[in-house]
Amino acid sequence: MTNTHGVLLDDGPGCGRLQPELEAELFDAIAGVEPGAELRAHLASCPECAAEVEELRAMARLMVEDSVATHPGEHFFTSLHGHIMDGLGEQHGQEDELLLEGGAEEQVAPSPAQARDPWAWLEPIRAWFTLKPTLAMGALVAAAIALLIVWPSGDDPSQPAGYEPSRSVMPSVALNDAEKAELKSLAASIQVDVTDEDEELYAAWDEEETSAAADPTDDPLWGEGVTGSVSGLSSQELEVVLAELNKSL
Amino acid sequence: MLLDVAYPRPQSANPSWLGGFAPRRGATPDPETRARQSTPVRTSHEQSAASRAPQATSQEVDLDALVTRARDGERAAFSQIVLTLQEPLYGAVFRLVRHSQDTRDIVQRAFIKSWTRLPELQSVGSFRSWLFSIALNLARNHLRDRGSKRFEPVEDTPIAVEPTAYSALNEREQRLKLREALGELPERQREVVTLRIDTEMSFREIGEAVGCSEGSARVNFHHGMKRLREIVTSSTAEERS
Questions:
Q1: Residue A230 CB: number of other CB atoms within 10 A?
Q2: Contacts of B29 in chain A (CB under 8 A)
Q3: Does position B138 have pLDDT exceeding 80, yes or no?
Q4: By the CB < 8 Å criterion, does B112 face chain A?
Q5: Among B218, B210, B204, B178, which Cα is nearest to B98's?
Q6: For chain B: N or C, fewer Cβ within 10 A?
Q7: Which stretch of DSSP H or E encloses residue A5?
Q8: Which chain A residues are Cβ-neighbours of B216 within 8 angstroms?
């Protein structure tokens, strides 16, 4: 019997006057569990309940006998146990092969450990390369070019240890002709400035600079870029800078 | 008594999955002794049942401890779990699928799946109902793929003793009627009846396995058993008339 919402309703076992606890016990008794004293007393005094329990227990007994008749035997379960344990071994073997060879994931359901793979986010990218290889390769090349443009070159031996150049002094690998010409003119102007100045003045200034700033990184102009003022550099440092510029151009 | 079940019983290997109704070798089965014979496996969910059941025997398996060890990756513990539960699981699935090879496959897959997903199990005490729910899902999918929930003819294991021709015929006819009647039950009722009769599971565990409350499992069991009785009775009455 169901109600209007399709939920199964119970019309109550037996006489319908059983307490909920006894009712639950009655279901167990139908399934073959020994009834308690209270239920036994009720069954002794209620022919309706006793008849229902007896009839339904007979049905349950018939089911059990059917199970006996179809029981496959002990040897069957010995074999089944072996197959199950072998199946666990194969499962692990397949997982090991996957770890060694990669791929063939579809053969085995992923274990919880595999499901928590930290590289799982790469799966969509791999699928993208499989489905649209040309488009994916184009995107990859574009990304590589962009990376080369903004990526800093190797360590500069002229810089002090631990010095990290600011973004503005990161040399780019590709300079167009206009940029090269600008740099050349800048270098030429610096060279002219240096040769035109009074050597004595520079010598005194160099001594002062050497005593005041033994560590070049203390110089506030460090990191400001070569395109800025070079007046804070010593003549030796300027020569090094110019030599480097000429070498690169 | 509605059904005559007092005929000589077949004698079998006395499988543990038959509970208290299991006929014993060389003796007429006595349902009143079920309480002395039942519950070889006990979980933490069976406190209420344990109050009416006898004390644990030395052979009783502590399933919770085995599951805990298996969850830590101990394969020997899982092997023990398989030995303990494969028969009741096979019995329940076979009742639903009615094909020995298919049942064997489903049971094997259910155990392997439970091993693989054991770390996901929240409560160790729920392992048995969880395992049965996995097996029931596989059985349902199998029946759905097969396109029919009707039972197929099933081959009986040869019985060890030879009962009289009349009793054997009577017994076989009644069993066939029962199988047909089970096939006519709604899926939920069939599963609940099967799990309650063929396994040692409590109604709470059955509810967890089939996805309903303990009370609903009881109600489904009661309705299923009554429906079985009606079908078998009417079938018998038709034949007599």
A1: 17
A2: 61, 64
A3: yes
A4: yes
A5: B178
A6: C
A7: none
A8: 8
